[in-house]
From TrEMBL, chain A:
Gene3D superfamilies xref list: alpha/beta hydrolase (3.40.50.1820)
The keyword Metal-binding belongs to this UniProt entry's keyword annotation: no
Pfam family, one: Abhydrolase_1
InterPro entries in alphabetical order: AB_hydrolase_1, AB_hydrolase_fold, AB_hydrolase_sf
GO molecular function: hydrolase activity
Protein name: Alpha/beta hydrolase
Record's keyword terms, sorted: Hydrolase
Secretion signal span: none
The AB hydrolase-1 domain, residue ranges: 34-139
SUPFAM superfamilies: alpha/beta-Hydrolases
From TrEMBL, chain B:
Tree of life domain: Bacteria
Biological source species: Noviherbaspirillum sedimenti
Descriptive protein name: SCP2 domain-containing protein
Lineage, broadest ranks: Bacteria, Pseudomonadati, Pseudomonadota, Betaproteobacteria, Burkholderiales
Amino acid sequence: MKSYFEPIVGRYLHLELLGKPHRLYVEEAGQGIPLLCLHTAGSDTRQYRALLNDPEILKRFRVIAFDLPWHGKSSPPAGWQNADYRLTSRDYTDIIMGVVDAMALDSPVAMGCSIGGRIVLQLALEHPERFRAIIGLQSGAHVDPYYDVTWLHRPDVHGEVSAAVVSGLVGPLSPEAERWETLWHYMQGGPGIFKGDLYFYKQDGDIRGRVAEIDTSRCPLYLLTGEYDYSCTPEDTMDLVSRIKGADATIMKGLGHFPMSEDPETFLRYLRPVLDNILASGAAGQKAN
Amino acid sequence: MENLAQLVNADERLVWKGRFIDTSFMVEVGETAYLIKVTEGRIASVTRGPFVMPSWSFALRASREEWEQFWLPVPPPGSNDLFALIKRRALKVEGNLHPFMANLFYFKGVMAALRTGGNK
C-alpha cells in the first residue's frame, strides 16, 4: 500500500485543571466552527479517528478531541498513585470548560458519547451561552447499574475485562476491524480508570431531575442513539426528548454504544444532516457569536 | 447445547483464550439444566440434568425464549449479549463469579458459539 499521513495533528496542552497542573493530549484537524469531541468512559480520542479524517467535515469544522486526564496519552496529575480515580460531574464540567478556555474556542459545538453524552447535557444546562450547539451520542439522564463494577479493577482480574464488559455494546453488524479497534482502546485503559468514569455515569451524574430545565432556544440539542445500546438505550434518549422541549433525536439503526468508532461510515450518515443543520442555523444568525 | 463441545473445541482461538480455565459451570435453558466442564479452555463434557448434587462455580439461568433470541444469527436489540440480558434481568448469573468475570471474553464466546452464523 501507499504510505500516507493523516491530517490529524496531536499536541500536548499544559493547563491548570481542578487546582493542579495537567498535561493533556489534544488532537485536531480541519478549519471552521470548532467541534469539540468527548470520548466514552475508559477510552480516548482515537474513537473519533474517522471524524478527524473526513475531508467534507474538515472543510467546515475544526474537529478537536482531547484525552481526559488519566486517559489515552494524557497524564494523570502528579501524586495520582496515592488516590483512587473517580470522575464527578463538577470535575468533568470544569475539565471541559478549562480546555475550551485554554484553547480560546469561540462558540464551539460540543459532541460527547456515553459519559460524554451525559456531560453535554450538563453543559447545555450550565453553559448554554458558551456553545453553538450540543450533540449527545448515546445520551441518557441516568443508567441503572446492572453489574458489579468492582470487577473492573482488582489484581486477580486482568484489565482486559473492561473490553469484555463493553464488547456487546458494539452493534452486531459493525465491521470487524472497527469493532476490535474500539475494544482495543478499552484494553489499553489504565487500571481502575473505566471504573472511575462509571462513578460519574452510574452515580454522581444522575440528572433526571434537571434535564427539563435545558433551554434549546439558547443552545440547540441534537441526540443520536444507536438501537443496540443496552447501556444508554433508545428509550433513555426518547425519555430525554419527552422532557426537553425542542430536543431533536434520531435512533440509529444497527449501531451500538460507540457509533463514531464501531461503524464510522454508518454513523457519519446520521451526523452529516445534524452538522448541516448547525451550519444553516449559524448562517441564519440564530446563535449570536 | 449438545453441540457445544464440538463448536467450542473447533475454535482454536476461543480455546486459547480459555487456556487457564478449569471449572464446571451450569447453564439453565428454561427448565433444562446443563453442567458444562471446561478443561484448559476445551469443553470436556456437557451433561444434561436433572442432577442430584451438581457441583459448579457459577450458573447462567434464562428462559428458553431468551436464549433462543440470543442465539439468532443477528439477535434483536436487548438480546445480543449476556450483559444485555443481565441488564433486562432476563439472565441471572449466580455463584462464584470470579472465573466468569476473569475470563469474560471466553465465556461470552462459549455462549455465542451456539449462534448460527452472524456475530460470535
